[in-house]
From TrEMBL:
<dbReference type="InterPro" id="IPR011006">
    <property type="entry name" value="CheY-like_superfamily"/>
</dbReference>
<keyword id="KW-0597">Phosphoprotein</keyword>
<dbReference type="InterPro" id="IPR001867">
    <property type="entry name" value="OmpR/PhoB-type_DNA-bd"/>
</dbReference>
<dbReference type="InterPro" id="IPR001789">
    <property type="entry name" value="Sig_transdc_resp-reg_receiver"/>
</dbReference>
<dbReference type="InterPro" id="IPR036388">
    <property type="entry name" value="WH-like_DNA-bd_sf"/>
</dbReference>
<feature type="domain" description="OmpR/PhoB-type">
    <location>
        <begin position="124"/>
        <end position="219"/>
    </location>
</feature>
<feature type="domain" description="Response regulatory">
    <location>
        <begin position="2"/>
        <end position="116"/>
    </location>
</feature>
<keyword id="KW-0238">DNA-binding</keyword>
<dbReference type="GO" id="GO:0000976">
    <property type="term" value="F:transcription cis-regulatory region binding"/>
</dbReference>
<dbReference type="Pfam" id="PF00072">
    <property type="entry name" value="Response_reg"/>
</dbReference>
<dbReference type="GO" id="GO:0032993">
    <property type="term" value="C:protein-DNA complex"/>
</dbReference>
<feature type="modified residue" description="4-aspartylphosphate">
    <location>
        <position position="51"/>
    </location>
</feature>
<dbReference type="Pfam" id="PF00486">
    <property type="entry name" value="Trans_reg_C"/>
</dbReference>
<feature type="DNA-binding region" description="OmpR/PhoB-type">
    <location>
        <begin position="124"/>
        <end position="219"/>
    </location>
</feature>
<dbReference type="InterPro" id="IPR039420">
    <property type="entry name" value="WalR-like"/>
</dbReference>
<dbReference type="GO" id="GO:0000156">
    <property type="term" value="F:phosphorelay response regulator activity"/>
</dbReference>
<dbReference type="GO" id="GO:0006355">
    <property type="term" value="P:regulation of DNA-templated transcription"/>
</dbReference>
Length: 222
């Protein structure tokens, strides 16, 4: 899942970003409303964690524009305001969920996971390809009777491939969705992660490489 954290308190924003990355999410940061709109206009995000009181363009206006654009990005509004009327006002602007500060980080992750399963066409919580099963709710991957220990990046890459259901996913798409905006487009991170993932999945291979095109999940030969 790719997340934009729009929060003007830089320490808090960094804390949120670090924690979400530890939960296999790709995270970009913005510290004011204008930068938030720029990033939303040039990048594709599954969810934006939006501080309501952003400097520059107010968070309410960011939410309103995002909702009217119909981009499909979910909005989790984050604010110090706990008044019920304020929460209702935020939801009516187009926010999909609302979390008041201070918040429990595990709850934030759970809410983002829930929003990520509700986009345009939500991916099911359990993904399958051949005898490979990925359970996103419990963060477990198995092949046959064997459970696999994957890093966050390996888990996220496999989830992207399984969600594509046999369609080809390019290295550029994986770099955008699993890493973040600062990832070097010439990096070999995708190739190296794919190499380790294949080794852990074992034989027969379920990930096919199409040189110059991308990767896809295939049913292994019987």
């Amino acid at each position: 899942m790719r997340v934009l954290v729009a929060e003007d308190e830089k320490t808090l924003a960094g804390y949120i970003a670090e924690g979400l990355r530890d939960n296999a999410m790709s995270v970009d940061l913005a510290h004011d409303g204008d930068t938030t709109l720029d990033k939303l206009g040039t990048g594709r995000y599954d969810v934006v964690v939006l501080d309501r009181d952003l400097p520059g363009t107010h968070g309410d206006e960011v939410c309103r524009r995002l909702a009217s654009a119909g981009a499909g990005t979910r909005v989790l509004m984050l604010t110090a305001m706990s008044d019920v009327r304020q929460r209702v006002a935020g939801l009516r602007l187009g926010a999909d969920d609302y979390l008041g500060k201070p918040f429990d980080f595990d709850e934030l992750v759970a809410r983002l996971d829930a929003l990520g399963r509700r986009p345009r066409e939500a991916a099911p919580p359990v993904l399958r390809g051949g005898d490979v099963v990925l359970d996103s709710a419990h963060r477990r991957v198995s092949r046959g009777e064997r459970y696999l220990s994957l890093t966050n990046k390996e888990f996220a890459v496999l989830a992207q491939l399984l969600a594509a259901a046999g369609a080809v996913v390019s290295a550029e798409e994986l770099l955008r969705s699993v890493w973040d905006e600062h990832a070097d487009p010439f990096t070999n991170a995708v190739r190296m992660t794919m190499h380790r993932l294949r080794a852990k999945l074992g034989e027969p291979a379920v990930i096919e490489t199409l040189p110059g095109v991308g990767y896809r999940i295939v049913d292994p030969p019987c």
